[in-house]
Amino acid sequence: MEQRYGGTDTMTEPNVSSATQRYEEARAAAERAMTTVTVVPDRPPTQGAMPIDVGLPPYRGFKFGAAFFGWLVMLSMAALITVLIAGAGIGISNVLDYTRADAERQAGTAAMVAAAVLVLAVSIAFYTGGYVAGRLARFDGARQGFGVWMFSLLLAALAAGLGAYANSLYDLVDRVDRPDVPLSNDDLLTGGLITAAALLMLPLLAALLGGKTGQRYHDKIDDLLD
């Protein structure tokens, strides 16, 4: 660009229009680039994705495998407790010199103690089986414990049916040398009914409680992860 000042010679002004234009273009390009950049804040890996609800129906409900293996553990625990009780009973009888004659003189007391020990042993076994089933299934521990009890009930009914059928064919009951218990038939019937009711209900409650206890292990972990 040229400018004249009076009669003096022409002075030339540096041409800065092209440099200014390039600067403005570069700044506009930088602004466009900055506006297209998206800053993503830190977030958990699962944020933005569809959450997985572990409480959906496919994860819940009765699990045949968990109940079956819990039932197997219950049988093993029942056998172990039976051996322990038998060993303890033999040891105590030897130490206290408790003979069969003493048991016959106190037949009622001996029968009640035996029934109570039986119910307690079976309840502990069912609690253990329910715990294992609830721990394996993770959800709905009470249902798994009920499954352990139902397995036992069905198999006990099947065994009773087979036993009745075999007795009708071979008269097995009359061949058994039953001891002469000094108790009346009414006492035996009452004690048998009470023991049967206890064996039916208390193991069920123990299995339900064991299943809920086994589920609590996973509930504690879920609470820590939340």
From TrEMBL:
Statement: the UniProt record of this protein carries the keyword Transmembrane:
yes
Polar residues composition bias: residue spans = 9-18
Keywords of this entry: Membrane, Transmembrane, Transmembrane helix
Region named Disordered? 1-23
Task: Give the stretches traversing the membrane.
Answer: 68-90, 110-134, 146-168, 188-210
- The identity of this protein, by name, is Major facilitator superfamily (MFS) profile domain-containing protein
Q: Which organism is it from?
A: Kribbella sancticallisti
Q: What's the source species' lineage?
A: Bacteria, Bacillati, Actinomycetota, Actinomycetes, Propionibacteriales
